[in-house]
Amino acid sequence: MTFQPLFLEGPTGRLFAIYFPPVPHQQNRGGLVYVPPFAEEMNQSRRMATLQARQLSKQGVGVLLLDLYGTGDSEGSFQDARWENWIGDIIAAMDWLVGQCGGPIGLWGLRLGGLLAMEAAQRAPERVERIVLWQPVARGRRMLDQFLRVRVAAAMGKGGPSESTNNLRKALSADGTLEVAGYTLPSPLAEAIDAADLANLAPRTNCRVDWFELVPQTDSSLPPAATKIAAAWQAEGANLRQHTIVGPPFWALQVWTEEAVLVPELWEATVKTWVGAR
Amino acid sequence: MATLDEVKTVLRDTLQLGDRASNFDASTPLFGSLPELDSMAVVTLIAALEERFDLTVEDDEITGELFETVGSLTEFVDLKLAA
Question: Cα A229–A230–A234 angle (5° rounding)?
Fold first, then answer.
C-alpha cells in the first residue's frame, strides 16, 4: 500500500499532508480531505485516521490527511494558528485534491475537525459535495473548557495553587497566550473556538452529510446535543444521516494505556456510506 | 437512579475498565481507590459526561466528594439533568 507524504501551499505557509491515492476502480469514487481534531486529540486519533484512509483508498477513494497550520509537521507554531487560516488550509487542501482524483470531493472531520469542516463547506460550497463527521464538537466553548481543564487538573495533581477555567480565560485574554499541556494557545484562536457552534453551520441542501456518533453499549441512542443540531439542520433542508456506532472515545487522552484505541466498526460503517448509495 | 447504568458505562469506556465496571454499584469507591482515575482521567471523565448528557460542569463543582463513589457521581448527574 503506497502513500505519499507531501507539502502543499496553504494561505499562511506550507502544509504537511499524507496522500493515500485511490486504488483504481471501475468508477471514480472521489476524494476526502481529513480535518484533524484539536491539540492532543489529533495525536490520540492519528492511527484511527491513518487506517481509515488506507481502507478508503483500497475502495477507490483518494484521502488526504492534512496537518493544519501550526500543528503536526506543517509550518508555523501553534501560537500563530488562527481559525480563519485553518479554514483557508482546508480549502487549499480540497483544491489540491480536486487535481488528483475525479468524482465527488468531500471533507471528513473528527471532533473540532468536524466543526471546521462544516464552516469550510459553508465558505466554499461549490467544492464540497459530501461531508463525513466523526463525533463533531457541537459547541466550541465546551471543548475549550475541557482543554483548559487539563491545566487545572495538572495544577491539582502537583498540589500547586488551584486554578480554574475562568481564571485561565482571564489570563489568556490579558496575556494574549496561555500554556496548556505543552501548547501555547493564542487568544484569537481561543475566541474563535468559543464562538463556533455547529447548530449555526447547517450544510447546503445539495451536500450529503453522514454523521457518526460513538455511543456506549447500554444506551445506543444519540446524545441530546446531536439530536438538537440535527433538528436545526433538517429545518433548513439538510441532507443529513446520523449513525451510531458502539465504541469508546478513541480521541480522548488515554493516559493509562500505550496502545491506540481502535474502533474497526467505525471504519466499516464509514466506507459503507461513502462507497454505497449516492 | 435511572442514570446509574449510564454513568457506569461512561466510566468503563472512558477509563477502559472492561468487565470490571460491571461489578460496580452505587457504593463502589472511585477517586483514590481506582488507580485509573488520576487527575487527568478526571478531566477526560468530566468531558465524557458533559457530551453524553449534554450538561455543563462548572470548575467549582469538580471536587473530591463528587468522585467519592459511583453513587455520588450519579447523584450529581441526576441533579444536573433535573436542573
Answer: 120
B62: domain CATH number?
1.10.1200.10
The alpha carbon of residue A244 and the mean position of all alpha carbons in its chain are separated, in whole angstroms, by 18
What mean pLDDT value characterizes chain A?
A: 92
pLDDT, one tens digit per residue, over A15-50 is 999 999 998 876 778 999 999 999 999 999 999 999
**Do A26 and A92 belong to one domain?**
yes
- CB neighbours of residue A139 within 10 Å: 22
Total domains in chain A come to 2
Are A164 and B52 inside 8 Å of each other by CB?
no
Kindly determine whether residue B54 and residue A225, on different chains, have CB atoms separated by under 8 Å.
yes
Radius of gyration of chain B (CA): 11
Give the DSSP H or E segment for A110: strand A105-110
A124 and A217, same domain (yes or no): yes
* Spacing of C-alpha A98 from chain mean position: 20
| Mutate which: B13, B49, B66, vs A, most A CBs within 10 A | B13
DSSP assignment letter at A218: T
Overall domain count for chain B? 1
ipTM of this model? Answer: 0.74
Q: Are residues A162 and A263 in the same domain?
A: no
| Residues A57 and A163 placed together within one structural domain of the fold | no
Q: Which of A140, A116, A139, A143 is nearest to A249 (CA)?
A: A143
- Whether residues B60 and A216 touch (CB distance < 8 A) is answered with no
Which structural domain range is residue B45 located in?
Answer: 4-82
DSSP tag of B20: G
